């Protein structure tokens, strides 16, 4: 019996929810340590007849002419010379993320997307494309074979396609040419920015750091910013930040929120949502319209014509409404169970939740995206 009791206690301990904790690196980031957006315009060559239709996309021909001119090749123009039809060339936009602390010579991934009417970028090669930042300066140079994850085939007017063919990726397809200065070593302190504004989390973060490093070293400036005094030596500062990022905080209860996606009918509720006492009436109105063909046959001596007419039958059926008395629900499971008992579809729940919120019975913020 004692062994069974010990086994039961162990099972209960395993089933009990563990206290949730999160590291500072998962909820905050050092301000100034960020990636930068890079973009460029280039050409993909070597396509199997799936490039831009240059009669509709003249900039593709112009871009290739400019590229060939830089290579010492001048295309003839005028005197009845027609523009070249470049079926194996496509104009593309190249994008990439320049990570923080990236140094010249390092490689980064790039995404290549068609900007014209090319049918596919499969099998193409991106020629050297400068990638610029928001300041207009060149920070990387992209080039390489485009990897497209889709596939497709067409014949006799039929077409089959899997995934997207007009966008691809070049792993390590760009070489960094210039680094972006990061103000990590500036000043006598570092500032952590929380991913979401929360005064409780910011205050708790400052308290945990002060308990480890001494009182007064960290202070919460607002609900999203925590300032921490850091060593002046660069190597010591890096180790100091690494140690702080591994500190664990108790996961605070988030603000009650219900997020509704009106386009897809999705509804997401967090664990803090509660429901006050209310009564909900839910009913359905069904309208059925049927059409039956009716043939009108004239008399044999009337010289008339046979006419086919339509007879419409409209029926309106209203199902009896259901009045559901909902008691106060302190837990998320009770809220979901009560809403599911209505038998409403996700689209119906959108209107029901909005009505409950307007009545003051939904203790949560309602956000429609």
**How are strands sequenced across the largest beta sheet?**
3-4-5-10-7-6
Domains, number: 3
Q: Kindly state the mean pLDDT as a whole number?
A: 80
Principal-axis shape: flat
Percent of residues in beta strands:
35-45%
User: What's the helix-strand series?
Assistant: HEHEEHEEEEEEEEHEEHEEEEEEEEHHEE
* Number of DSSP helical runs: 7
Question: Fraction of residues in helices?
Answer: 10-25%
Strand count: 23
Report the span from N to C terminus: 56 Å
Query: Describe the biggest sheet?
Result: 6 strands, antiparallel, barrel
Radius of gyration: 33 Å
Uncertain runs with pLDDT below 50, 5 residues or more? 1-19
Alpha-beta classification:
alpha+beta
Task: Report on the architecture of this protein.
The chain has helices at residues 2-15, 24-27, 58-70, 199-213, 234-245, 332-340, 346-358; strands at residues 21-23, 28-30, 36-45, 89-98, 107-114, 125-132, 138-145, 151-155, 158-162, 167-176, 189-194, 218-220, 225-229, 248-250, 257-261, 266-269, 274-275, 278-282, 285-296, 307-318, 322-326, 362-363, 365-368. It is α+β, with helices and mostly antiparallel strands and 369 residues long. It folds into three domains: 36-176, no CATH class; 189-250; 253-369, no CATH class. The strands form eight sheets. It has a six-stranded antiparallel β-barrel with strand order 3-4-5-10-7-6. β12 (218-220) and β13 form a beta hairpin. Residues 1-19 have low confidence and may be disordered.
